[in-house]
Write a structure and sequence with these properties.
TIM Barrel, 8 strands, globular
Length: about 375
């Protein structure tokens, strides 16, 4: 992975970084999203619009502020499962092509407002399919929305298809179908495969290894939610499978041996501080392991996870690292740069984005 250009490094070191100026840098800095769930990105305003076109929805007739109280998790909850409850309120709204396309389009619009150059958008088509809306149609609708967003807002994007744990929630056949769909769309909008949690359960990550390796053989990047909770063996399984990135990885703070191995292999960790606090994995921004990881030499890619559900944006996460984890302006730039180079894009695509990043970051540092 290339190092941050020296011209940007020097400019960041020369600056006098007051909290106000750092907040402006967090907003103006060119950024990428590596860990962004399509469903979790729905704003209350988007949920409101979708509810108006869904007669049977209990959200129809509610105001935006009333919807916000139902779908935004703005305080920590005890577990990941408790946070997933917020999704149940709006998920029925996503089971049609117009709804999925609108969600993807408005996600691209929101990314443009945050100076996000490129977003890898992940979701599980099996959760949105119905008898009249099969998985392929779900994926096609999302890709249409992202393509419209690229044309209108200039935000590049790729899709990461999420396989889901445990099989008690999403069975083997559905996961096999999603993996096959991702492979079929490799090079046609799908850039990666992930394994995420859809509910409580202890399905081993290793049971998804064959599907992930088939994705690798088709040219897809690999990531996995691992180490977000104390379940044992997840990070080891992820490394055995050969992932490029790890989502969350909080339990690395308990395993210095594994942290060294992740660093040695060049695996990037997708860091989502607010998500980790709201799901109870971390007590506060100050206690998040991102600072220790950075000091140890781990490459991190800062993302939001579920910005709509958590009521945040990516600038918020950069500010939190600066304010509470002591990240300097130079380290914020490095984090954005490392995220860009961890994208599941061909080398030429990353180099093109890197050129845009250098130009836009120089302007943000003025």
């Amino acid at each position: 992975m290339p190092s941050l250009p020296e011209s940007l490094r020097s400019a960041a070191r020369r600056g006098r970084w007051t909290p106000e100026r750092t907040a402006r840098l967090a907003a103006d800095l060119p950024k990428v999203e590596t860990h962004l769930h399509l469903d979790g990105a729905l704003s209350p305003e988007t949920v409101f619009r979708l509810a108006q076109t869904t007669p049977q929805s209990p959200l129809r007739g509610l105001s935006v502020s009333e919807i916000r109280r139902k779908v935004v998790v703005d305080q920590p909850r005890a577990t990941l499962s408790a946070v997933l409850d917020a999704f149940h309120a709006f998920y029925p709204l996503l089971r049609s092509a117009p709804a999925v396309e609108l969600s993807a389009y408005e996600l691209a619009r929101d990314c443009a407002r945050q100076n996000i150059l490129y977003a890898e958008v992940r979701f599980a088509p099996s959760l949105q399919q119905t008898a009249d809306f099969p998985m392929k149609a779900v994926l096609d609708a999302a890709l249409r929305g992202l393509e419209r967003g690229r044309a209108d807002f200039g935000v590049g994007s790729g899709v990461i298809v999420c396989l889901l744990r445990p099989f008690a929630v999403v069975d083997r056949s559905a996961n096999a179908a999603m993996a096959a769909l991702a492979v079929d769309y490799a090079g046609r909008g799908v850039v990666g495969l992930d394994v995420a949690d859809a509910g409580p359960g202890d399905q081993a990550l290793s049971e998804y290894g064959d599907w992930l390796r088939r994705g690798r053989a088709a040219g897809l990047g690999l990531t996995a939610h691992a180490g977000e909770s104390p379940r044992g063996g997840e990070i080891e399984d992820a490394l055995e499978i050969g992932v490029d990135r790890i989502g969350h990885g909080i339990m690395l703070r308990e395993r210095p041996d594994l942290l060294k191995e992740v660093i040695r292999r060049g695996v990037v960790v997708e860091v989502n501080p607010t998500s980790n606090i709201r799901t109870g994995s971390v007590a506060s921004y100050r206690e998040h392991p991102a600072r220790a990881w950075k000091d140890a030499g781990l490459k991190i890619a800062l993302s939001t996870d579920d910005p709509g559900v958590f009521g945040i944006d990516l600038a918020h996460e950069y500010e939190a690292l600066s304010r509470d984890a002591g990240f300097t302006a130079e380290e914020l730039l490095e984090t954005a740069w490392d995220g860009l180079w961890s994208l599941f894009l061909p080398e030429a695509g990353r180099r093109e984005l890197a050129a845009r990043f250098e130009r836009d970051a120089a302007a943000a540092l003025d």
